[in-house]
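User: Can you help me understand a structure? I only have the sequence.
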Amino acid sequence: MRLPARRLLPATAITAASALLTGCFAGTESATGTGDGKRVRVAMMQPPRSGLSPLSDDAFKLSRWSTAETLVRLDEDGDARPALATGWRQSGRTWTFEIRDGVTFHDGTELDAGSVVRSLTEAASASPKPRILDGVELTAKAADAGTVTVTTATEDPLVPQRLSSPQLSVLAAKAYRGRTVNPVGAGTGPFALTAVHGTASATLDRYDAYWGGRAKAPGIDVTFVPDGTARAAALRSGEADIVEAIPVSQAAVLDQDLITEVPMPRTNTLYLNNAEGAFADPALRAAAREAIDADAIVKGVYEGRADAAEGLLGPALPWAAKLREPVARGARAGDPKGAAITIGTYTDRSEMPEVAALLQQQLQKAGFEVKLDVREYTNIEADALAGRFDAFVLSRATVLDSGDPAAYLYSDFASDGTFNLSQFADEGVDTGLEKAADTEVGDARRAAVVAAEAAVLAADAAVPLLHERVVQGDAAGVVGAAHDPRERELVTVNTYVK
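Assistant: Let's start by predicting it. Here is the structure, written out as tokens:
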């Protein structure tokens, strides 16, 4: 890939970034439990939103710090593999999981079937539920000290994948004694969470009794740095060892040997309102699709650090490209004749307004009259879900929490999908989506998923633009940092700083 021309940060930006970083990583040498070697200093983008409760999106932080673990993990293909459970079997609506022996929580108590049942029951009865259990009725029971049965209201081939979600982490009893779930000192991973300082920082120390072997680093010091320029400056100045989510605009000014780009299961998509307005006309949906130049968006907005989309599922799911066939389109492009449309998007991801502006130019060139409505996501989501835009630009995770794209496709494109921004309804597509969701995990399910994707694209329910990459910075002395497309791993048992 040809790298963009090197650019220098303005002095004012460097000064601002340095001010933001002052004190961010101070005091890590004196943190408790330093042990041997160097502690890993991590700069993360988003501070905790729910006090690091595993029942929220904060669960992914606990997973990335290797402090909370689940019964199951996912391999590169999204297939379930043993973690705190060593094996499982299905009988109708019930799955039986064998719990790993010799595991202790960070408070010294032992992992057993009762511990698992307590954590899963807390999640299943939470309000709101973790999103991996949205629409799922799940009951967990201890068959004996080392065996747990999980039963769902309907037969569900994805139960093991669901149980890989960080939001279903298994914690010690102490985590559930307050009004909220408190993960401090309650996980089973190689690092014990010892302190959380609001939305500023967190401290983790190595847990020497970890069932998977002693971690190579003595601990982790996390600082939350929402400002992208400041995070990049932390890597450049040597104040952080690992920096997540470096903005594309900053990546070009860093030492490229310190940058790793990993394809994410996240697609930047233009959802077209199929129910009303200009795009209720299939010919105008086709006209919009043909007018869009995704390569120009990749180069102009993402500076080449993204992949132009061939479908809704990108290179983070390599099996999709192998199975995909050319899409048979259902309509020919019509003449927009000045059709007025409004595109909505949000400011929370800095690239979205720029993407929308380029789309505006491309669609206007094709003959549409285009207005933009750009707000913070919390202020625009309700209108988007209600179909108040002709089109909406969204950066969307395509495997959600189960590692399986069938749930995303159903949510976004089924007639009764809960995130159907396109207001799309097609009985034939519904049948294909249901087949994908009900098919047993494996090659047959993947084929059904790709067939459902083709049906959605044939109707121009949405136009996939590009697949994002996560840009991560690792200092020269970092060894073994994870580069995980699903953003579940970051510092692992094998990560250390020379």
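Now, to help you interpret it: The chain is about 25% helix and 25% strand. The longest strand covers residues 259-272. Let me know which part you'd like to focus on.
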